[in-house]
TrEMBL record:
Organism: Sinocyclocheilus grahami (Dianchi golden-line fish)
Transmembrane segments: 64-82, 94-115, 136-164, 222-241, 253-276, 296-321, 333-358, 392-417, 437-455, 467-491, 512-531, 551-572
GO molecular function: amino acid:sodium symporter activity; metal ion binding
Keywords: Disulfide bond, Membrane, Metal-binding, Sodium, Symport, Transmembrane, Transmembrane helix, Transport
Gene it is expressed from: LOC107595947
Name of this chain's protein: Transporter
Bridged cysteine pairs (disulfide): C176-C186
Cell compartment(s), UniProt: Membrane
Listed GO biological process terms: amino acid import across plasma membrane
Chain residues that bind Na(+): G70, A72, V73, N77, S307, N339, L404, D407, S408
Membrane topology note: Multi-pass membrane protein
Database matches in PROSITE patterns: NA_NEUROTRAN_SYMP_1 (PS00610), NA_NEUROTRAN_SYMP_2 (PS00754), NA_NEUROTRAN_SYMP_3 (PS50267)
Superkingdom, taxonomy of origin: Eukaryota
GO cellular component terms listed in the entry, alphabetical order: plasma membrane
Length: 610
């Protein structure tokens, strides 16, 4: 979610300082150009100066904060955290969750904000400057974000479908008297232990929305209603980001704040329903024995990591549009704590409603609680069908889902646009003439890649993509990003970047987390993910055929493969012996002369040391 236009394309204080230095040293540069090596360095320096001078910026700091919160607070806060909390010890789960938040989530978010704001570049080019050997990590984050946005917008398509149908005289998922219902096994409530029955809301989702087939091997043709809504979803995304941070910065005032009004309105309504107390107690009741299970701690770390959005490149990209001296430490705490608070409030909202449904149908809460798309597209619509004033709450809920999803979608698409503009801006603009057309091309290609998800067998494609992109690939990227920045680039250099921007070095807590705790936690999550790998499944019974699993691993490799390819390319194109190449490939090329105040001799030595 970024955006800024011509009005904000002014020269910042740091740029003025840089340009002044550039003019004062012009004669020396001309002499240096006599040497080929210095000429190349001068060319790179001039390119950096131009990039700094013309780069777009957020109109206000609040726009950056809202965009970051909007990206971090997504559908996972509503459908994953509450379920994971109650499955992992209830209130006891908050202990490992908060520990992981402060030891892993907050330090790594601060790290990404630092890299993006200091270099004023997207993830690809900033990581190439930080550690040339792992420049492929930046490209991998762009690829995984773009792949994710191609099917994430399908969720927005479903939300639009439900939103339009929620204006019907009666909610279409509340009865079994519809043409799509299988009357013999349809239940107007939750079937409980009657495994041969399906709820009316489940059949609406399966047979009306998806018209799903029996498996991924049966594509079944395009769902044209969903096709049209997918077009609409991408049109909405385009018009929210086509002007860059100028348009996105204004949109987030609504999309990042409106969900909170709905969330609190639902909370006030739900806690007054009969049975709500039982659902909330079920959500929070601590099971202290769960704290002895390693998997609970791994789940807590993974939830923090995925929810904040580390290693997707979006946070680096959004921070790159900040002013050089923006207080990213303050913004880090605001974004992280707002994200976690939203997850906890969403837990109260969801489980108060589930407790109400358990009370209505005289079933255990455990029979109703679920996670993933089934929670927001099956369980919650069923809740609305029995709520007072259901015609009010249903549209508001799906508008909330749209806002939550669109904010995350903005940021993921913007990563690809930032990569194109940073790396090939002038060349691409010669073809497309305007940045708006580049954004249109990015959105159009994302739409085409999303079409398989809105076929009648698309839900199986969706689940396969989500499993191998958001679960398998992400932890590999996270590990190599942390390795490149905190261990190879180094905490000392990272601290100097913070000092140059904020006027003081990060405190001991952040330095210890960067140096030891965060890398160990990320490595632990990665190892756990490898050893506890399970093939993708849909529901409780459908298992994917072997060829689909192969496709899934290929999807994972689409992003991961750029890490070794980038390293090989760097070593191949660097001159010297193998040892010299390795030494050069881990030497950062960050230009410290682009700061608003001249760095100290110690700072320069840190960044230029071989």
């Amino acid at each position: 979610m970024m955006g800024v236009g011509a009005d904000n394309k002014t020269v910042s204080i740091s740029s003025k300082f840089t340009l002044q230095q550039f003019e004062e040293g012009k004669e020396e540069v001309e002499l240096d150009k006599m040497t080929p090596g210095n000429a190349e360095a001068t060319r790179l320096a001039e390119a950096d100066h131009l990039s700094t001078e013309t780069r777009e910026m957020w109109g206000r700091r609040l726009e950056f904060v809202l965009a970051s919160i909007g990206y971090a607070v997504g559908l996972g806060n509503v459908w994953r955290f509450p379920y994971l909390c109650y499955r992992s010890g209830g209130g006891a789960f908050l202990i490992p969750y908060l520990i992981m938040l402060f030891l892993c989530g907050i330090p790594l978010l601060f790290m990404e904000f630092t890299v993006g704001q200091y270099t004023r570049l997207g993830p690809v080019h900033s990581l190439a400057k930080i550690c040339p050997l792992f420049k492929g990590v930046g490209l991998a984050t762009v690829v995984i974000s773009y792949v994710l946005c191609t099917y994430y917008n399908v969720l927005m398509t479903w939300a639009l479908y439900y939103l339009l149908h929620s204006f019907s005289p009666s909610l279409p998922w509340q009865s079994c008297n519809n043409t799509w219902n299988a009357v013999g096994n349809c239940s107007t409530g939750f079937p409980g232990n009657a495994t041969h029955l399906q709820s009316a809301s489940q059949q609406f989702f399966d047979h009306k929305v998806l018209e799903m087939t029996k498996g991924i091997e049966h594509a079944g043709g395009i769902r044209w209603e969903l096709f049209g809504l997918l077009v609409l979803a991408w049109v909405i995304v385009y018009f929210c980001i086509f002007k860059g941070v100028k348009s996105t910065g204004k949109v987030v005032y609504f999309t990042a704040t409106f969900p909170y009004f709905i969330l609190f309105a639902l909370l006030i309504n739900n806690v007054q329903l009969p049975g709500a107390k039982d659902g909330i107690l079920f959500f929070l009741m601590p099971n202290w024995s769960k704290l002895l299970e390693v998997q609970v701690w791994v789940n807590a770390a993974a939830q923090v990591f995925n929810s904040i959005g580390i290693s997707f490149g979006s946070m680096i990209s959004m921070a790159s549009y900040n002013k050089f001296n923006n207080n990213i430490l303050r913004d880090t705490f605001i974004v992280s704590l707002a994200n976690s608070a939203t997850s906890i409030v969403a837990g109260f909202v969801i489980f108060s409603a589930i407790g109400y449904m358990a009370h209505i149908h005289n079933l255990p809460v455990d029979d109703i609680a679920t996670d993933g798309p089934g929670l927001v597209f099956v369980v919650y619509p069923e809740v609305f069908s029995t709520m007072p004033v259901s015609q009010l709450w249903a549209p508001l809920f799906f508008i909330m889902l749209l806002c939550l999803g669109l904010d995350s979608q903005f940021a993921m698409v913007e990563v690809a646009v930032t990569f194109i503009m940073d790396g090939f801006g002038k060349k691409v603009l010669q073809v497309f003439k305007r940045k708006e057309l580049i954004v249109l091309a990015v959105c159009s290609f994302g739409f085409l890649l999303g079409i398989p998800h809105i076929s009648r067998g698309g839900i199986y494609v969706f689940q396969l993509m989500d499993h191998y992109t958001a679960v398998v690939s992400l932890m590999f990227l996270a590990f190599f990003e942390v390795l490149a920045i905190t261990l190879i680039f180094g905490v000392r250099r990272l601290s100097v970047m913070v000092e140059n921007m904020l006027g003081k070095k990060p405190n001991l807590f952040f330095r210890v987390c960067w140096q030891f705790l965060s890398p160990m936690l990320v490595l632990g999550i990665l190892i756990s993910s490898i050893f506890q790998y399970t093939p993708a499944r849909y529901g409780k019974s459908y298992t994917y055929p072997f060829w689909a699993e192969v496709v899934g691993w290929f999807i994972s490799l689409i992003s991961i493969i750029w890490i070794p390819l980038g390293a090989l390319h760097e070593l191949w194109t660097t001159e010297g012996s193998l040892l010299q190449r390795l030494k050069k490939s881990i030497t950062p090329t960050v230009d410290l002369e682009s700061v608003s105040e001249k760095p100290s001799a110690e700072s320069i030595a840190l960044f230029t040391a071989a």
